[in-house]
């Protein structure tokens, strides 16, 4: 063999070496939910989305905040990618602070409509800056995972829905509106909601939301396999878009690489980086740019995201 195949990719070798070499779809393979493993998400692709969000902010007054042209352009960018990949997209409007806000929902056709697995992130930034770690990082990783679903022709048992929320920074308004707008019957069909808000912090920690045990275990097992220690994220209750789902009784989970809290010496010993410094010193600041990202954390968290989406929907 002229190339080496390791880990999860090895399982696909029997399908077609040519497809692996070309990065092609394995959609033609016999559907076998138990055999389907998540692909390795390309951090270069995730970073390319971040570069686009950075340039969108640059062209629109330096931010992508609720009610701004930068938010609209961010939504247009994500939606165009999803439409081209075969998702059914829906833009949901709401009002926050006197301005129209938008959520973007993307449904992957197929799967059991009574068992919906959702993954989401807020797409708005604060008005102080471009919001690349908070929360371009989660938005780009959720987008790339959705595109990987399409590329690999993944057709899980459960129905997949991806979401990009508006106006999180104004008080979790967009996701709250979405949950409020669901009938009780439709709410009960959501078997889990996975949230990704800040997953590429420059001085990263690896925090797994301490919430639904099955979701938490799915993430923790993935990091254990990488030999990376995690800590439970509990402080986040109520601080991001999983809160309205949790309040409505939906099982929730997610990942977080840290915001304005200070990394301790013990955390630096297990994760590297700098103790005595914030996980993200540019949190909610103008310096939250494309250079305010740790590539390794972004890569691992993106791969963990895809792993959880695959595992929990199969
Ligand atoms: N967008 C969130 C916020 O501004 C970021 C955040 C801070 C967060 N702490 C968190 C997200 C804990 C999840 C968990 O508050
Ligand atoms: Ca990867
Ligand atoms: Zn924020």
TrEMBL record:
One of its GO terms (biological process) is proteolysis. One of its GO terms (cellular component) is extracellular region. Its main location: secreted. Residues 103-308 form the Peptidase M28 domain. CDD domains: M28_SGAP_like (cd03876). The keyword Hydrolase applies. Keywords: Disulfide bond, Hydrolase, Metal-binding, Protease, Secreted, Signal, Zinc. Pfam families: Peptidase_M28 (PF04389). It is found in: Secreted. GO terms for molecular function: aminopeptidase activity; metal ion binding; metalloexopeptidase activity. InterPro entries: M28_fam, M28_SGAP-like, Peptidase_M28. Residues 1-29 form the signal peptide. The keyword Thylakoid does not apply. Its cofactor is Zn(2+). It comes from the Bacteria. Monomer. PANTHER family: METALLOPEPTIDASE M28 FAMILY MEMBER, PEPTIDASE M28 DOMAIN-CONTAINING PROTEIN. Belongs to the peptidase M28 family. M28A subfamily. This is M28 family metallopeptidase.
